[in-house]
Design a protein that fits this description.
Layout (H helix, E strand, L loop, with lengths): L2 H7 L2 H30 L14 E8 L4 E9 L9 H17 L7 E2 L2 E2 L13 H4 L3 H13 L16 H15 L17
Antiparallel strand pairs: 1-2, 3-4
Length: 196
């Protein structure tokens, strides 16, 4: 190391300037990543459909270009016989989220892989093969009826959470919207066996 270089490395101002430059640079990178993430996860973005997607059919199909399964949004397929405006859909899904939070569903179920592993993941609950045999409004009604009066499906019984009809409809809307979110192929091959 030259004498001049040694002089720089022993000067506290050299290290202070380096720390400040690194902090400013990394702050700019963090801000750019945060802005990009918010753009990706905001409803109405390419990967997170707007809330009124609940007025459309939502399926899960293999995309050869991406080599993974992805949600496929189709034509109109109303739930509960009502076409929701963007504002109505946002309110209904907000209520559905509160119903799910108030019943602590995440203690047993996972959403996008987060939560308890006691019961099935609910990320694609709308398209679960159990319900997929029912089309449109009938599927929504069957799912709502199950939430209000759970039956034993699989190895473990779901407890009766005393969910009222309006709460069940809101939770169904939330689950349908959540099924439309593009989660990069998660869960892998969901519904593939049933041709979904």
């Amino acid at each position: 190391m030259t004498e001049r270089a040694q002089r720089y490395t022993q000067d506290p101002l050299f290290w202070r300037a380096g720390a400040i430059a690194a902090t400013i640079f990394m702050s700019m990178v963090l801000a750019a990543l945060t802005i990009d993430t918010l753009r990706q996860i905001t409803p109405g973005s390419p990967r997170v459909p707007a809330y009124d997607v609940i007025n459309n059919s939502v399926a899960y199909q293999y995309d050869p270009a991406r080599a993974e399964y992805a949600p496929k949004i189709g034509g109109e397929e109303l739930i509960f016989g009502h076409k929701y405006s963007p504002e109505e859909a946002a309110d209904l899904i907000g209520k559905g989220k509160l119903v799910i939070q108030s019943r602590a569903c995440i203690d047993c179920h996972t959403f996008f892989g987060n939560g308890g592993y006691y019961a099935p993941d609910l990320t694609r609950a709308w398209m679960d093969p159990v319900w997929s045999i029912y089309a449109g409004p009938k599927r929504a009604d069957k799912l709502a009826a199950f939430m209000m009066h759970p039956l034993r499906l699989g190895a473990r019984a779901m407890p009766d959470l005393h969910i009222q009809r309006d709460e069940a409809e809101a939770a169904v809307a939330y689950l349908k919207w959540m099924s439309s979110v593009d989660s990069n192929g998660f869960p892998d091959r969901f519904g593939a066996a049933s041709g979904q």
